[in-house]
């Protein structure tokens, strides 16, 4: 598989894994299920796209179409993560609060009203700007490390090709 894909996936996994100790540090609450959830610090979306963009920039160069595609795609993903998805999460908070409001209305009414309780909507969908920035910085670090670590592989394969025949 493409080394850029490995670097991006590693960065996403690392960001997801870091959410657990960061949450514990902030809230004193151990929640390993955060590894499989969206939202939170750092943004794995930002980490993934920025690590791939950094890896491409260092490997292929900034003036390439590869870098341009990755950069534009990454900016769209990060904008979406902190913009539209965050707004959706905030709207979901309000929708979930409607259940409590309905309970209050129901208790004050004399008419018998039976409501089925739906599952609460997931409230943590998007990211705050600092979570996106944290993910982007993690991605840049991971992309740089991925490039440095795989750079030795490239030199060795060129060396083997020269001396084979």
Automatic annotation (TrEMBL):
Residue ranges of the TM segments: 132-150
Keywords: Membrane, Transmembrane, Transmembrane helix
Classification via InterPro entries: DUF212
Origin: domain of life: Bacteria
A Pfam family this chain is assigned to: DUF212
Name listed for the protein in its UniProt record: Divergent PAP2 family protein
Lineage, uppermost ranks: Bacteria, Bacillati, Bacillota, Bacilli, Bacillales
